[in-house]
């Protein structure tokens, strides 16, 4: 094989390997360092996630941020008309719940709707009772202003897309792990998987 051809072939292999390395690094960074993209407090260095909110659960009861106190919580923003990410994430959280075993008793899962126009308490109750979703998941909704305030506290993004009955909602996919003191502990990527999510949660529980 001519030397020039060999050099060209070798260069192409190196370029491909470098590209694959970059892709791998981006994927790992997105999954393992989700919390690092959140704004941090200048005093504590911890991500500024969570805060006061007032919403209504699927049973019509008014709740606020104190509902997070005393238990570990996984907080997730979505909506009942979501065609893919929301049901997939909820199913993953159900599998994570199973992986945690007895530790799951220390945890609650909170689903906050970003679509208050359609997601009434009854709609949430019907949706979250679906097979394959986490047991005991708490659904929250409210007025558009209340939902926007809760999303702002968690640095969660959402936007209505489209008009009429066929509209959908774009929204962020991060699951927020909150400690029994109601304070943020870690961000869990929606596609981390039940095994690694359970491992992350157990490590956080061990640290307290």
Automatic annotation (TrEMBL):
It comes from Brevundimonas vitisensis. This is SCO family protein. Belongs to the SCO1/2 family. Residues 27-208 form the Thioredoxin domain. PANTHER family: ELECTRON TRANSPORT PROTIN SCO1/SENC FAMILY MEMBER, LINALOOL DEHYDRATASE_ISOMERASE DOMAIN-CONTAINING PROTEIN. The keyword ATP-binding does not apply. SUPFAM superfamilies: Thioredoxin-like. Keywords: Copper.
């Amino acid at each position: 094989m001519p030397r020039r051809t060999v050099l060209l072939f070798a260069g192409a292999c190196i370029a491909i390997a470098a590209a694959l390395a970059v892709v791998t690094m981006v994927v790992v960074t997105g999954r393992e360092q989700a919390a690092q993209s959140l704004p941090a407090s200048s005093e504590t260095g911890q991500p500024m996630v969570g805060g006061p909110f007032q919403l209504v659960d699927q049973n019509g009861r008014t709740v606020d941020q104190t509902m997070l106190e005393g238990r570990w919580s996984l907080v997730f923003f979505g909506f009942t008309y979501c065609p893919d990410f929301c049901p997939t994430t909820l199913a993953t959280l159900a599998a994570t719940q199973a992986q945690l075993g007895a530790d799951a008793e220390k945890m609650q899962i909170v689903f906050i709707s970003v679509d208050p126009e359609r997601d009434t308490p009854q709609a949430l109750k019907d949706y979250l009772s679906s097979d394959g979703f986490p047991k005991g998941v708490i659904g929250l909704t409210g007025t558009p202003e209340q939902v926007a305030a809760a999303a702002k506290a968690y640095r969660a993004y959402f936007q209505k897309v489209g008009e009429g009955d066929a509209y959908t909602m774009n929204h962020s996919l991060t699951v927020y792990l909150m400690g029994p003191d109601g304070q943020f502990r870690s961000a869990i990527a929606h596609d981390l998987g039940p095994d690694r999510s359970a491992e992350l949660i157990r490590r956080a529980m061990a640290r307290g």
